[in-house]
Amino acid sequence: MFRIRPSIDLGNDQAPHTPGLHNFRPPQEVVPGFRLNTDDPEPSGLRLGPTALYLFDDLDAAQAVAPVRCTSDGSTLDCTTPKGLSWGGLPVERFPPEIAPSTPHHHGTDVLSPPGASADKLLQGIIDKPTPGPPRLNRPATPAGTLNEATPDALYDLYIGASKFPWRRPYGTPLSQVTSHLRYDREGNPIVINVTRPSHGLAPGYVVHYLVRTPEGPRIQTEGEGLSPLQGPSSPKLLREYLNKKVWDSYHREIVNRSK
To answer: For site-directed labelling of 232, which of 1, 5, 196, 254 has its Cα 20 to 30 A away?
Structure first.
């Protein structure tokens, strides 16, 4: 159960509008797994919009809203993703001044899930399990950030949990740790952001999950950027495809299947 301070829906006429980006808000209802902050005045009269579903009709216009890059002072991250999603003030550790297409080893992730039946359940799914890591080493994303293991489940078991190799370590040993944040973007929509810890083998980088509307139904959009040479242009193609796409294809299938 989470305590989330809800935003008040101003309605279509008063809501902020981003060129090329249309906010779609279903009828308001309480999101499963969320609880309204009882410190708010008249909490019974407020509702947290269950999802904010993006429909990009004009990607160029969406990207023009702000520079497509992430900047950091070393302790916080302000970011506009390649698809125009934007947030600020996210706590990070030892991030470079900039993550942008012009920086060495820059790479991107852009993966769309199969359609799901329920936007609310998809949203709850990415909150409850923010990474492709082992379920026992993953906890829900929170506003303050939750430390999680992001190594895909099978790889983690191979390297640690189920291996007989000399390098075997106790289950729970950190390999690829991230901090998972439940935040609102600058449009007031809920998003889940994973940022790498300094010890992560693919640091520095981020991955963000959010929901999009499609004719077939709601989907999870996962995008991210980073500067790890293992994922950059000079890395072997098969490795790049696995780290930048296939890992997230599997993660999406897991979340979508759980939402049915």
So the answer is: 254
Q: CA-CA distance, 149 to 131, in Å (whole number)?
A: 7
Spatial neighbors of 96 by CB under 8 A, at least 6 apart, are: 72, 103, 204, 227
Of 73, 66, 69, the closest CA to residue 92 belongs to: 73
Q: How many CA atoms lie within 13 A of 44 on its CB side?
A: 0
Whole-number pLDDT of residue 35? 33
Beta strands in the chain (DSSP E): 2-4, 21-24, 34-36, 53-56, 70-72, 76-80, 86-91, 98-99, 107-112, 146-149, 177-184, 190-196, 205-214, 217-226
| Element counts in the chain: helices (H) and strands (E) | 5, 14
Q: How many CB atoms lie within 10 A of CB 183?
A: 18
Give the side-chain half-sphere CA count within 13 A for 230. Answer: 10
In angstroms, the Cα distances linking 8 to 47, 52, 189 are 8, 13, 11
At residue 214, what are phi and psi to the nearest 5 degrees? Answer: -135, 165
In this prediction, residue 57 has a pLDDT band, given cuts at 50, 70 and 90, of very low
Q: CATH says 59-148+176-259 is which class? A: alpha beta
Parse the chain into domains and list their residue ranges.
59-148+176-259
Q: Strands, DSSP E only, in 28-154?
A: 34-36, 53-56, 70-72, 76-80, 86-91, 98-99, 107-112, 146-149
User: Which residue type does 85 have?
Assistant: L
User: Between these two residues, 116 and 14, which has the higher pLDDT value?
Assistant: 116
pLDDT of 17 over the 90 cut: no
The SS3 call for residue 56 is strand
Average pLDDT, the chain: 77
Residue 67, pLDDT score: 52
